[in-house]
Each structure stands twice: as structure tokens, then as C-alpha cells.
């Protein structure tokens, strides 16, 4: 049995960020559990052709680890994974790789978490505090399509890319037109004939990607102030995008106009253009960035079809009745985002985290949860963003969690009224946004309650201020022990 002050689950951005925050707060007794063989999180798992970040590289990294060597404005996935590996090495963070969390239960008698692990380090870990840094886009969502199991060819989700499948010259179906598909389809179209099944078109704006030259990278390396100034500029640009994503009428209209002009300039066929035009408010679903998707769909290498309705062997039937024979099937259908898989594994004072979140994820400060003492969740309830880098959010969460852990003199139990007040605050802020009232279905909203449970409905600056204002009153007073006065 291992005994530590803090157990961290996950070795992606959130897990590494938490480990660094603990060290800076003077907490060195921790362990990082990672079910996979290495660090990297989503950037380790997603290796499909064209995978890249849609947040500027110099904003998509830790503040304490600027990287002058990014190759482009938007880094490819492999570079981001390599960046995380370097950070882990520099910080001397060595996760217990190949070690999934099988379960975690709060022991009220001993006031600690008992974490059961499997794999390479099978056993039990006792920890005063538990940090779930498991990511929010980890478990692929597989659609319930009649006959899907009858497909005889290569069939896989984009997040579980099968590199052994030879797709050159093949007829490949891609299901979905979200962020992954927008990156993947242009790459597949270079080597294969693609049938693209679209349920709902996305708002897509120009990516405007450019590579950084050797001179650029040399300048960043030689003058950290230049790099810091660029990060500050990108931060301001990202925060400015919040207005258009959250429903400001003028900002949304201007952004929608840019997206519409982008579509019109790249797709000449009126019928195809109409099929690719969203009928919901700008920002309701994730706004995508691409300069290559529309030209690919407009080419003779891609056929656009409505939503996939059924599969019968190699024959795929769309919702309009059209039939398409294909050799391989790729599901770019997103992730289980609002119902996190780890929630069933965590047992607090009154049941599982999944029970507590049965009508949608809730918390205080997007980080701590009533009924789960000394538990901290990064990238959990209302901690995602639709306008800028999520790394900025998780660094704030990690700093808050590290402060609370380092300064605690008793078990930290969230006051249920504090969680309810924070939840009400989120609901009020979200009510008038396109995420709730924009006329679309999105992965930000929990279908069970209709609540916005993924996105923070504000700027990063507002979130930073919100956590900075947390003074400990979100936790219940420690009970007076018997025999003391």
C-alpha cells in the first residue's frame, strides 16, 4: 500500500499542471496515475491525420513553460504531445504509467481516500486528497446506428485511429462534421474517396494558419520578452472572441458574416453551399477553424450526405434514403462529455459522483463538489471554454486546489449551499446565451437537465477573479471533536 498526501488521476495537461502547482505550494507528497503508457492525454490518444490544436500554440501551454519552438500558429498534435513530455521531464514528474484508477472511496473513519489501482501498479493508494485530472474528451461517443455491427471493413473512432488500416484508394465514410472531421476530411480526400455524413453543419471561420520561420523561433528563444508579449496579445484576442461566442448581437453578427463569406468564397455550388449553411445561432455549437474543409467537400473527392441512418454490411443508408457502398468507416462522433466515465468510480459520503451529477455536473468554483471531501476536479463542471485556451482555466483550477490543500488544517467539505449558489450563478449567466437558446444541440449542455454543464459562461479573467475571491467560506467549518472545547 502507498500513502501520499495527494493522488492525481491523469497525466495530460491537467495532471501535469496540478503536479506543478502542488510543488510550487510546497506539497511534494503526491503520485500521478496514468492508465496509458505515457503522458499526453488527448494529444497522446488522438493521432488521426491532420490532428492539430485550434488554439494558437503560444497560448496553449503552461505559463511557466513557454515554448519558442512551435512550428506554426496552430501546433500539430504530435508537437503538443512532445511538449508535454518535455515539461514532465523538466519538472521531474514521473507518473505511474499503465495504472488505471479502478475506484476511489472516501474513508470517513480515517479521513482519507482509498484509491484502487490496476495494471502495472495494482493495489491501493491512501491519499488525503484526490484530484481528478482525467480530461473531458477521453471516451469516444459511439452512435446508436442500426446495423453498425454488421460492417465488415475497418471501423474505428477518430480518437482511436487504426494506423494499420490501408485507406489509400479506398472508399471511406466519415460520420460527423465536428472539429475532428474538419481536420481529418481534407487529409483523407488526398488519398481516398470520401463520403461525409453530416447531421448538422458547423459555423466555420478562416483558420489563417501560418508557419513560424527559423528566424521567428530564434527571436522567441533569444528574447523571452518577445514571446511573453505574443502570448499576451493572443490572450487578449482570445478573450475578445467571447462576445461573439456568447451571444453579443453585434459581435455575433460580425463573426457570422465572416463565416458566411468564407463559405461563399470556397463553395460555388448553391445546393452544396445551402447544405453546409447552419440554421442556428452563431456560437451555439463549437465554432470551427479551417481553410481546407470547404474546398475538400466541394471537390470531386468528397460526397456530402445527410446523417447516417443505417448500416447493412458495406452499404450505408443516409437519412434521405440514399445508399453508399464503402470500404472503411470512421466515426468522428465526439465524446462522452457531459457524463464523465470516472464519475461512476468515485464514492463520496453519500454515493457516487455519478449519482451526485445525475441531473448534470455541479460544483463550487468548477473544482470542488459537495459530499466529496478533499476532492478536486480539473476540466470538470463548467471549466471548458468556447473562445480561448482551456489551459488557462486548468492552471487557475490547479492553483486554487493547491492553495486549499497546502493550507488546510482539517478535512475540506464543500458547503452544499455554496455549490448551489455557484450553480445558480452559472445558470443565470448561461440563460441568454446561444449555448442554451441558440436553436441547436451541443455537447456543452446536459440533455438530462438542459443545463450548461461544460462551458464557463464568462471570460478567463472573470473565472480567475471568481477563484481569487474564494476565501474558504465555500467549505463547512470543521466539526468540534469530542473532548475539546
Automatic annotation (TrEMBL):
One Pfam family cited in the UniProt record for this chain? Pyr_redox_3
Domain of life assignment: Bacteria
Name of the protein in its database record: NAD(P)/FAD-dependent oxidoreductase
Amino acid at each position: 500500500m502507498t500513502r501520499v498526501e495527494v493522488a492525481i488521476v491523469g497525466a495530460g495537461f491537467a495532471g501535469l499542471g496540478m503536479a506543478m502547482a502542488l510543488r510550487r505550494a510546497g506539497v511534494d507528497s503526491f503520485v500521478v496515475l496514468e492508465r496509458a503508457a505515457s503522458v499526453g492525454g488527448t494529444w497522446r490518444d488522438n493521432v488521426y491525420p491532420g490532428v492539430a490544436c485550434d488554439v494558437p500554440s503560444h497560448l496553449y501551454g503552461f505559463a511557466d513553460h513557454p515554448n519558442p519552438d512551435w512550428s506554426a500558429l496552430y501546433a500539430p498534435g504530435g508537437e503538443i504531445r512532445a511538449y508535454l513530455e518535455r515539461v514532465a521531464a523538466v519538472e521531474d514528474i514521473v507518473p505511474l504509467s499503465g495504472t488505471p484508477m479502478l475506484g476511489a472511496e472516501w474513508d470517513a473513519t480515517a479521513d482519507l481516500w482509498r484509491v484502487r489501482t490496476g495494471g502495472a501498479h495494482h493495489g491501493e493508494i491512501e491519499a488525503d486528497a484526490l484530484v481528478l485530472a482525467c480530461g473531458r474528451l477521453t471516451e469516444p461517443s459511439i452512435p446508436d446506428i442500426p446495423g453498425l455491427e454488421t460492417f465488415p471493413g475497418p471501423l474505428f473512432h477518430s480518437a482511436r485511429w487504426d494506423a494499420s488500416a490501408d485507406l489509400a484508394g479506398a472508399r471511406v465514410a466519415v460520420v460527423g462534421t465536428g472539429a475532428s472531421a474538419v481536420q481529418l476530411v481534407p487529409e483523407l480526400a488526398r488519398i481516398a474517396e470520401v463520403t461525409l455524413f453530416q447531421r448538422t453543419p458547423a459555423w466555420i471561420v478562416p483558420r489563417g494558419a501560418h508557419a513560424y520561420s527559423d528566424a521567428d523561433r530564434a527571436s522567441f528563444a533569444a528574447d523571452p520578452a518577445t514571446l511573453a508579449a505574443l502570448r499576451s496579445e493572443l490572450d487578449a484576442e482570445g478573450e475578445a472572441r467571447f462576445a461573439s461566442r456568447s451571444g453579443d448581437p453585434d459581435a455575433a453578427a460580425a463573426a457570422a458574416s465572416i463565416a458566411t463569406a468564407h463559405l461563399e468564397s470556397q463553395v460555388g455550388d448553391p445546393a452544396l453551399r445551402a447544405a453546409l449553411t447552419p440554421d442556428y445561432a452563431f456560437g451555439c455549437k463549437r465554432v470551427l477553424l479551417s481553410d481546407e474543409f470547404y474546398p475538400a467537400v466541394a471537390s470531386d473527392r468528397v460526397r456530402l450526405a445527410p446523417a447516417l441512418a443505417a448500416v447493412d454490411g458495406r452499404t450505408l443508408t443516409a437519412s434521405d434514403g440514399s445508399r453508399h457502398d464503402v470500404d472503411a468507416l470512421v466515426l468522428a462522433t465526439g465524446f462522452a462529455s457531459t457524463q464523465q466515465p470516472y464519475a461512476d468510480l468515485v464514492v463520496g459520503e453519500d454515493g457516487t459522483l455519478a449519482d451526485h451529477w445525475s441531473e448534470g455536473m455541479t460544483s463550487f468554483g468548477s473544482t470542488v463538489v459537495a459530499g466529496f471531501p478533499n476532492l478536486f476536479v480539473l476540466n470538470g463542471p463548467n471549466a471548458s471554454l468556447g473562445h480561448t485556451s482551456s489551459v488557462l482555466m486548468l492552471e487557475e483550477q490547479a492553483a486554487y486546489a493547491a492553495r486549499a490543500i497546502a493550507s488546510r488544517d482539517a478535512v475540506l467539505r464543500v458547503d452544499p449551499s455554496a455549490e448551489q449558489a455557484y450553480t445558480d450563478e452559472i445558470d443565470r449567466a448561461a440563460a441568454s446565451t446561444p449555448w442554451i437558446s441558440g436553436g441547436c444541440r451541443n455537447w456543452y449542455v446536459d440533455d438530462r437537465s438542459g443545463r450548461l454543464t461544460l462551458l464557463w459562461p464568462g471570460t478567463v479573467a472573470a473565472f480567475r477573479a471568481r477563484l481569487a475571491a474564494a476565501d474558504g467560506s465555500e467549505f463547512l467549518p470543521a466539526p468540534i471533536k469530542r473532548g475539546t472545547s
